[in-house]
Amino acid sequence: MKNKTPKIKFWLEEDGEIFGKGNYEILKAIEKFGSINESSKQLRMSYKKAWTKKTSTEKFLGGDIFISKKGASKDSGTILSPKALEFMKNYELLEKELEEFLEKRFNELFKKEE
Q1: Which residues are paired to 79 by β-bridges?
Q2: Quick one: which of 41, 32, 23, 39 has its CA closest to 87?
Q3: How far is CA 92 from CA 48, 49, 68, 69, 78, in A?
Q4: Torsion angle of alpha carbons 106, 107, 108, 111, nearest 10°?
Q5: SS (H, E, C) 23-70
Q6: Which of 8, 59, 79, 107 could join 111 in a cystine, given CB atoms 3.0 to 4.6 angstroms apart?
Q7: Mind listing the pLDDT tens digit for each residue in 25-74?
Q8: Residue 69: which region, alpha, beta or left (left: phi > 0; alpha: psi -120 to 50)?
Q9: In angstroms, rounded to a whole number, what is the distance separating the alpha carbons of residues 96 and 88?
Q10: pLDDT band at residue 3, thresholds of 50, 70 and 90?
Q11: What's this model's pTM, rounded to 2 decimal places?
C-alpha cells in the first residue's frame, strides 16, 4: 500500500437538505469573485447549477447568507454574510480534522505491515 492514499467525502444533512463540497465550492468562489456568474464560469459550472447550489445553500443555512448589490458599478456584486463566512470556516475545520484522522487511522491500519 505504498502509494495508496485514503480519500473521504462528507456532507451535512438537515431535514432532507444537504450541504456538501459543491455548495462549499460555490460559496468559496462567490467569496473570491464577488459574482455568481463569474463563480460559475471559474468552476466550469452552468449558471443554473450555480444558482441552484446558491439557493439550496441559503435554504440549508436559513437564508441571509448573501449580500447582493445590483447595478453596474464597482460596488455591485455578491458578498457573503458573516453567518456564511463563519459556517465556511467551521466546514473547512471539520474537513481538515476528518482528513487528518483518516490519514492517521489509515497509516495505523494499513501501513504497519510495510
Answers
A1: 67
A2: 23
A3: 25, 22, 24, 27, 21
A4: 110
A5: HHHHHHHHHHHCCHHHHHHHCCCCHHHHHHHHHHHHHHHCCCCEEEEC
A6: 107
A7: 999 999 999 999 999 999 999 999 999 999 999 999 988 898 887 766 66
A8: beta
A9: 12
A10: confident
A11: 0.84
The set of cell numbers assigned to 50 is: 450555480
> What is residue 88's three-state secondary structure?
helix
In this structure, what C-alpha cell is assigned to residue 47? Answer: 449558471
- CA neighbours closer than 13 Å in the CB half-sphere of residue 106: 14
Between helix 21-33 and helix 82-110 the angle, nearest 10°, is 130
